[in-house]
Amino acid sequence: MTPIDHLRIDENRLWQSLMDLAQIGATPKGGVCRIALTDEDKAGRDQVVQWFRDAGLQVRVDEVGNVFGRRPGTDPQARAVATGSHIDTQPTGGKFDGNYGVLAGLEVMRTLNSHGIQTVAPLEVAFWMNEEGTRFTPVMMGSGAFAGIFGADHIRSQQDGAGITVGAELARIGYLGDVACGDVPGGAFAAYFEAHIEQGPVLEAYDKPIGIVSGALGQQWYDVTVTGMDAHAGPTPMDLRHDAMLAAARMVDAVNRIALDQAPHGRGTVGHLQVLPNSRNVIPGQVKFSVDFRNLSQTGLDAMDAAMRTEFARLAAQCQCEVAIDQVVRFAPCIFHPDCVASVRGAADTLGYDHMEVVSGAGHDAVYVHSVAPTAMIFVPCKDGISHNEIEDAKSEHLAAGCNVLLHAMLAHAGVA
């Protein structure tokens, strides 16, 4: 092993930073409510920016409120190796989702400072604006603008439920920057790594401290409307009904079957359902529901889409109803860069951490950054696989392990002077 192989982050410092940030927007049940571009988000941003500056990082803010802290390298021409995530939360969010990735990046910088280690390439840590999409849509707003998926003007014009725009709130809290989206000193990132809690139960179930994330599931969301006819529950015979609820129930079951046919990476969920007129003695005349399909391949997603349309049409006719399907979200499957994935695996091996390959079932900023820079992710377990919940929890030793893997993966790309 080289002297650098023995380098480790400060576990207690990382944990304390997470706990300190969690006090901003803390909820009575031990979670965090720090929704994008609120006063709580401003306070959280101010704290992290202060930590960046205390670590000697050069801070810049872009035109949609993404924040970057840069640690210069010895080669001014080299492109930066970056990491990051987000610090906005769900209304009843936890301490670790997103926050861990940002503060793990900061801990990498602090560790290098503590040991007097200089890299050849610059290092950067970012926190992206409005990853959660709770107050403003779309989700992963800041990283999407950085990657050119969304225009900056479009993002700044988005409104919340009260009609307040992203641009107005960025200006109000002091984070409407003047750096163009995607403009990185020296050129696009040479590599990007994102550390994150898994937000699922796999790593804990297999007792693995590190997940080597090979990619992220593509997502296709739909709004479905089934239309039948309202009718009295008593006088209307069963064979003469146009029961939208019966058709919808069979369609919900079909979503489950379609996903199972695409094992192991197929996912199918109906999470929202609205029944009209929603009266106990009226046969429902209309049902609206959501469908969320996910898969690791576009071919798989296309097959799920086709199966859904065929099966929904058949079930609607069977129940003497009509069905309309509107696709509202589409994220292509993401396969992370093999060199970056190999760096994560190599770091875990060097450090002696047990690991397994996993795919991300959730969307992350890394999915958008992947389109403009070689990218990989590092997962660590979270208790019972629970996230987006105030009881979200993770072990300090697992968080430290993921941060150590992040440190060594970044050094593998940045080089040590």
TrEMBL record:
InterPro entries: Amidase_Cbmase (IPR010158), Bact_exopeptidase_dim_dom (IPR036264), Peptidase_M20 (IPR002933), Peptidase_M20_dimer (IPR011650)
Matching CDD domains: M20_bAS
Pfam families, A to Z: M20_dimer (PF07687), Peptidase_M20 (PF01546)
Superkingdom assignment: Bacteria
Peptidase M20 dimerisation domain location: 218-314
GO terms of molecular function: hydrolase activity
Keyword field: Hydrolase
Record family assignment: Belongs to the peptidase M20 family.
NCBIfam families named among the record's database cross-references: hydantase, PRK09290.1-3, PRK09290.1-5, PRK12891.1
Full protein name: Zn-dependent hydrolase
Organism field: Comamonas squillarum
